[in-house]
Amino acid sequence: MLPLAVTMGEPAGIGGEIALKAWLSRRVHGIPPFYLIDDPDRLAALAESLGWLVPMRAISAPDEAPSVFNEALPVAPIGIALRARPGHPDPADAQAVVGAIEAGFRDVMSGRAAALVTNPIHKESLYRAGFQYPGHTEYLAALAGAAEAPVMMLACPGLRVVPVTVHLPLRRAIQDLSSAAIVHAGRVTAAALRRDFGVAAPTLVVAGLNPHAGEAGGLGREEIEIIEPAVAEMRAAGIEVRGPLPPDTMFHLEARATFDAALCMYHDQALIPIKTIDFYGGVNTTLGLPFVRTSPDHGTAFAIAGRGIARAESLIAALRLAGEMAARRAVAV
Question: What DSSP state is assigned to residue 227?
């Protein structure tokens, strides 16, 4: 199998140390071969400062990674000197951060890497350097020339959630919610469940926006005017879907066993249940791209960067999920 491409993310954050931890636990967790797009000298210095024995091997092409992965961490050098120190980002590193994303993108699109796993970025530093995209997802979609907007899914064992509106103030999320957006999210999610997650006949549930799913209009009409028409349209398209359901009763253990993914109407409605269930092991995956992309479901954690205490479970889960998704796509080709 081809290796996974892993971007360095923000060099002042915890991306480097959780990548080192993931490599150190590669056998325990059954992590597929990956290579890190980063600065080998930075990583070697970081490992030494933490007292971790992590041999590095600079590679010139992704196909070199699998043969060295068991003995050394394969690193594709970015070729740019970095200025950041742990916990202290420097906008001058933006070129390297974006360059690592672009290098990983080229590798997956050219078929040299099986999937792309992105470490957390610091958007403020990128914005100060002129980066004009809200984040990874939108930038990767632009690079790929995606005809439709990609869809964010958060996944952990036992639960997958999709926020229909994402990084918006709550007032604007309510204003922007539409039947078309719900249908798009449902269609992309159902297709991804079949292709990438091996769910032959996926079942979706759709959350209501208001308490008690609006109580037949008594607590708001969004369910009647926006969500119910979207559910009807998805059913007409052959998607098995239920809803709108009261959001406060959708996520207990017995309820979760009845569906494969939940469409949520705004960011926190999706992220609160998954982070409650599996705070350290959730994975962010982007649906609707022409390649597999996953990411840890956390940020740069500047406050603890460089101390060796950052937990790597989310990156490990992202690596394993990326490998599983890529393997299913390879079989389907």
Answer: I
